[in-house]
Amino acid sequence: MACGEKGGLKKLAQKLGIEEAKPKQIPERIVATYDYQDENNNFLFQVARYEPKTFRQRRPDGNGDWIWNIEGVRRVVYRLPQLLATPGGKWVFLVEGEKDADALVERGQAATCSPMGAGKWREEYRQPFRGRKVAVLSDNDEPGQAHAHQVATSLIRIASCVKVIVLPNLERGQDIYDWLAKGNSIEDLLRLTEVSPTWQSSSGHEVLDAIVAFILRFVVLSQCQAEAIALWVLHTHALEAAEATPYLNITSPEKRSGKTRLLETLELLVARPWFTGRVTPAVLARKVDLERPTLLLDESDAAFKSDKEYAEALRSILNTGYRRGGKSSLCVGQGAAIGYKDLSTFCPKAIAGIGKLPDTVADRSIPIVLKRRAPNEQIERFRQRNAEQEASLLRQQIIQFLSVTPLSDTEPDIPQELDDRAADCWEPLLAIADAAGDDWPRRAREAARALMTGEDREDESLGVQLLADIKLVFEENPEQISSADLVSALIQIEESPWGDMHGKPINARRLARLLKPYGIRPQTIRIDDKTPKGYRQADFQDVWMRYLYSDLLSATAQHAATAQLCERAPKYPQQTVPEVPDVADNSQSYPEANVADVADKTPGREGNEEVFVFKEGQQWEMEI
Q1: Are 353 and 248 spatial neighbours (Cβ–Cβ below 8 Å)?
Q2: How many CB atoms lie within 10 A of CB 107?
Q3: How far is CA 476 from CA 471, 488, 527, in A?
Q4: Predicted pLDDT at 8
Q5: pLDDT greater than 80 at residue 446
Q6: How far is Cα 416 from Cα 616, in angstroms, rounded to an integer?
Q7: Cα(first)–Cα(last) distance of the chain, in Å?
Q8: Helix axes 483-491 and 462-474, enclosed angle (nearest 10)
């Protein structure tokens, strides 16, 4: 290197011709083999397990060697001859892998599995289980649970009894082999099997009805709110089938309204729950990227008022994470080695707090506005241990329903009252409602209209509110109006902001400035013998059509419909208990958060993916 030339060790090594050492490749080696035989003990094929952990199937070529596939070979379950010899009254444990089956056989149990692991079950494997008692043991992960429920659903029509056994105290990804290694005994397994409920195939509408009833036992909600939440719970388990994920914006004007209690209830039902109030930005971003959890964020008002770095990290994840492909890009490294690392922000999120969310986050959310419980509204005391037992069965039913219900290619009809962002929010939920059947397609669309076009919907921007109020004024001035008369009419509208804008009422100049972005400018008009500046109704028709989607219904009819839907008596009566508990959900109260939007916005896009970049404490935010 030349004198004074800058560079690191890698550059120096290149100058000296020294090659960078490459990591050693660990050769694959077979650590176990598992033979598959037919009912007459004839060898069919073999599964070879390698280290690092991979599996390959092979069959004899007739010349003492192997053909590394099983094309054209009959597929059977593992240990078929031993399975057929098992007495009919004995439990047969159906596991996910051969290693698990062998561990149970070594302990005197009948056990088997289907070849090639989770998701490869075939209907042709059912026959050996006819009339038998089958206990399906799933691995503790989503593919394993889905596989177990697929198998149970397949066998329920042919076996004498089918149970899906939930093994306690397993970490994510562990199985029966790990459970036994923790010191649990076969006697423990048999006792658990006996007390576990018999598997029953549940229809989608029954699952949704049960979830609504479960939630309403612990939280005071309107019927449409409970139905939307139930659909969202199923959506968290079917995230892979969705291109967008709506957030739940759980809010209330005051504390002790049940926000935390609702999150606690959801924690028992959703997929991969992560209940948190505050973590470091690095943990937040990396956990979402790595695990794709269902984020249950409590006291969001406090989070958005915390230190700037955390608030920006949270905001970026929420702004981009509602759509598949959303990312946050972090700076990594130092000096000449600085670079970027993209982290996925896509995951379901429920956000609870007092006051409003930032507009860009609220626009991606389903509003769930809670009210403090009235003295005559009774709910059950929430005891997590008891509730967990019921929720465990509900989760099994959810996975069972979704394991046999295709959702990926569905395109549900969207109510025309919903704007584009609201349609994105509700599309995956409506797909679930349509698949569930019964009256859920109707109920879901009623809930969507009530929550997304009614009073529970967050206020639009100041400009859109202005367009709506001008439309109201033009109902009495059918063709044109002077700027002065329009200003006067706007100020007289009750509960409008036009009479007090930073201490002063709106004037003609401010009105013109607010309308300019929409392409509307004051013109000289003729009113009787005068020619003041003013506005023509015809000039507003295009922007009204584009921005006032909710005016497809009259304001009066829309309000009446919303009130009828959201205040109707719950279909599922809430249980009356002798003692009415205190359902306080916050130990502190916070003033209403009114978080201003980030001012410095620089858009960036990679293909169709939304990207947020953190750089030296700054956030570059892109709105779409």
Answers
A1: no
A2: 12
A3: 9, 14, 15
A4: 63
A5: yes
A6: 44
A7: 48
A8: 110
Q: Phi and psi for 610 in degrees, rounded to 5?
A: -85, 130
Place of tokens 């004198």: 3
* Cα–Cα distance for residue pair 396/400, rounded to 1 Å: 6
pLDDT at 1: 53
H/E segment holding residue 480 = strand 480-482
Largest CA distance in the chain: 108
What dotted CATH number matches 80-195? 3.40.1360.10
Edge-first strand order for the sheet with 523-524 is: 480-482, 533-536, 523-524
Identify the three-state secondary structure at position 434.
Answer: helix
Separation of alpha carbons 505 and 5, rounded Å: 65
How many Cα atoms occupy the beta-carbon half-sphere of 480 within 13 Å? Answer: 15
Nearest 10 degrees: Cα torsion 381, 384, 388, 391: 50
For 343-358, what is each residue's pLDDT tens digit?
A: 898 999 999 987 777 7
Secondary structure (3-state) at 109? coil
d(CA 407, CA 428): 8
Rounded-to-5 percentages of helix, strand, coil across the chain? 40, 20, 45
Pairwise CA distance, residues 250 & 62, whole Å? 66
User: How far is Cα 457 from Cα 442, in angstroms, rounded to an integer?
Assistant: 20
Burial class (CB in 10 A: 0-12, 13-18, 19+), 461: exposed
H/E element, 220: none
Q: What are phi and psi of 481, to 5 degrees?
A: -155, 145
Residue 556 has pLDDT above 70, yes or no: no
pLDDT over 50 (residue 286): yes
- This prediction has a pTM of 0.60
